[in-house]
Amino acid sequence: MELWFRGTMGLLFVGKGNTKREVAICSAYFPKNTGSPSRELSDLIRYCEGIGLPLLVGCDPNSHHTMWGDKEVQTRGRMLLEFLTLSGMQIANRGSVPTYFTPERQSVVSWRVSLEVSLSDHRHIFFELDESIQLFENGYRNPRATQWDLYLEDLKGRRIGIPSRYESEADVKVVLNRLNSAIVESFEAFKTKD
Q1: Does one domain contain both 132 and 146?
Q2: Per the database record, which ranges form the Endonuclease/exonuclease/phosphatase domain (predicted)?
Q3: What is the pLDDT of residues 106-132, one digit of tens each?
Q4: Rounded to the nearest 10 degrees, what angle do helices 148-159 and 169-190 cross at?
Q5: How many angstroms separate the Cα of 194 from the Cα of each of 53, 126, 135, 179, 191?
């Protein structure tokens, strides 16, 4: 494999029962004045899908969306969420405590800076993986091959019982989780893999 990124690497993941799993890991940064995501990341996602290699991306996308803990949704965030959805990537952020603050905004970051000496003017970013990580093996899905009429009919049925009025932020979160589950379950029922 030709490496497109300095930060791309393979990793043997040791899970329960001493099972081993190979996972590709990369980090990505999308500067505010550039397109999101980069062509290189898109190529890497396609490559990993093509050979059946799970991919974990640690990313600072400079994109704001409530799906990854922001309080607002911006156009760039909507575009990134659409890309993630169409490429079969999953959002794995944990927690909702803001770790980045400015007078105008705050955001949630799911990593920490290592105190280990790096022999650089930057510290290492630390991610912790354990055996509870879920590696999804979706394969590529062609949205054009989905049976959309059956999907929509099924989704209508699954929406029955989901409230349309909310009295608190907690109610909204419950409804969003139920609606998200309904969308995914309907899609899974009528998808076609290429």
Answers
A1: no
A2: 24-109
A3: 555 556 677 888 787 767 766 666 555
A4: 150
A5: 17, 36, 20, 26, 10
Collect all residues with Cβ–Cβ distance below 8 Å to 153 and sequence separation of at least 6. none
Q: Yes or no: say if 1 and 99 are a contact pair by the CB < 8 Å rule.
A: no
Per residue in 5-62, pLDDT (tens digit) is 444 455 555 555 666 677 788 878 788 887 768 788 888 888 888 888 888 887 778 8
Q: How many residues does the chain have?
A: 194
Q: Which two tokens stand for residue 56?
A: 């974990």
DSSP characters for 48-110? HHHHT--EEEEEE-----GGGT-SS--HHHHHHHHHHHHHT-----------EE-SS-EE---
107 and 76, same domain (yes or no): yes
The label of the residue with tokens 């169409």 reads 86
Round to whole Å and give the CA distance between 66 and 75: 12
Range of the structural domain that residue 6 is part of: 1-136
Are 11 and 101 within one domain? yes
